[in-house]
Amino acid sequence: MKHRSRYADAEAARAAVLLALPSIEQTLQRSGVSALKVLHLVVLDPAACPGSSEFKDALLYEHSVGDREQWDADYAAFARDKALLSWRHQMDSRKVVQLQPHRLSHEDTVLWGGVWLDGIVVAASGALPAWDETFSLLVAAHLRAIALERSIGTPIAWLRVEQE
Prior knowledge:
Elements (H helix, E strand, L loop, with lengths): L9 H19 L10 E6 L10 H4 E7 L9 H15 L3 H7 L14 E4 L2 E6 L3 H23 L5 H7 L1
Helix pairs in contact: 1-5, 1-6
């Protein structure tokens, strides 16, 4: 049985990314953030848990920023690997890689840029690690706010309007 979040579904994840995009796109244009000015974002379903869900079933939403033709690496795969690391360890990928490297397996990435915010996992790849983490946190915070608003019954019809 696949567990799906009641309030943080694919529509909410897409809305969270769209809310974060103006800041992400503007920041990607700054020198020293991303040489290629590209990014890939991965959002996982907060209701999917390691042990009871497969990672592929936890994938909720993905979005690329910039021209994928410019990619010099598979940033989507890197973002998924960072998301998997944060999901499995229930913490930011930076914390696992830099503070608890003894928990890394041979299959784990040593790249960081994914976050775990109150069970919400978002990972980014394409920028420098600190910026990948920043963009991930921005999307995760938006998703948490959307889920909180949905949970108390606040109408969010504006999300559908902005997505169209």
